[in-house]
Specification:
By secondary structure, this protein is an alpha/beta fold. The protein has two domains: 131 residues, Response regulator (Rossmann fold); 53 residues. It is 64% helix and 12% strand. It is built from seven helices and five strands, in the order H-E-H-E-H-E-H-E-H-E-H-H. Strands 2-1-3-4-5 form a five-stranded parallel sheet, sandwiched between helices. Helix 3 packs parallel to helix 4. The radius of gyration is 29 Å and the shape is rod-shaped. The N terminus is likely disordered.
């Protein structure tokens, strides 16, 4: 199940056990994903500074900073990075905690090859959808700001035209100006 867009995403594997890094590396490489490994959270942060990754597969129990500590840092600093947590401890509370902290997946070691591949594909797809959603939201906000600016300019132009009409001195024009002012007030109230 190789998807073109997903193949372009580089994966960072973070685990203090070299055997796990090698195993996961072989699995992701067989699916066409380029990857790097890091033995601890600090090395992972160095790698994230140097290179662009789409996904991080991270062990929870590591010496020094834990995977949960790393997830917290990564979630704040690298919002476009998808994270799948991996652990040998089957603890529902930790799974819920990491998912609530922003992890896109959670696998228990020893994991099945297909389980890992499915978690990777789902995490990268969710990442893609979240990035697309954020871009769309930014475009809409920009469009709303642009339209609001146009509306304010239109209101200013209407007010200036009404002011110039008010300069006429005859009674009929004056009455028309009063009526137009009342209509404008009604329209403004209806518009909010």
């Amino acid at each position: 199940m190789k998807v073109m867009e997903e193949q372009k995403q580089k994966i960072l594997i973070v685990d203090d056990e070299p055997v796990i890094c090698e195993l996961v590396g072989r699995i992701v490489q067989s699916e066409g994903y380029p990857y790097s490994t890091a033995a601890d959270a600090d090395k992972a942060l160095e790698s994230l500074e140097k290179d662009d990754y789409g996904l991080m597969i991270c062990d929870i129990n590591m010496p020094g900073k834990t995977g949960i500590d790393l997830l917290r840092i990564v979630h704040e600093k690298y919002q476009d990075l998808a994270v799948v947590m991996a652990t040998a401890v089957d603890d529902r509370n930790i799974a819920i905690q990491t998912l609530n902290m922003g992890a896109f997946g959670y696998v228990i070691k020893p994991f099945e090859r297909n389980e890992l591949i499915i978690n990777i594909a789902n995490a990268l797809r969710r990442r893609e959808l979240e990035i697309e959603n954020r871009r769309h939201r930014e475009e809409l906000e920009s469009l709303v700001a642009e339209r609001t600016e146009e509306l304010h300019a239109s209101w200013e132009e209407t007010i200036l035209r009404l002011a110039s009409v008010a300069e006429f001195r005859d009674n009929q024009t004056a009455q028309h100006t009063v009526r137009m002012g009342e209509y404008c007030c009604l329209l403004a109230r209806k518009a909010g």
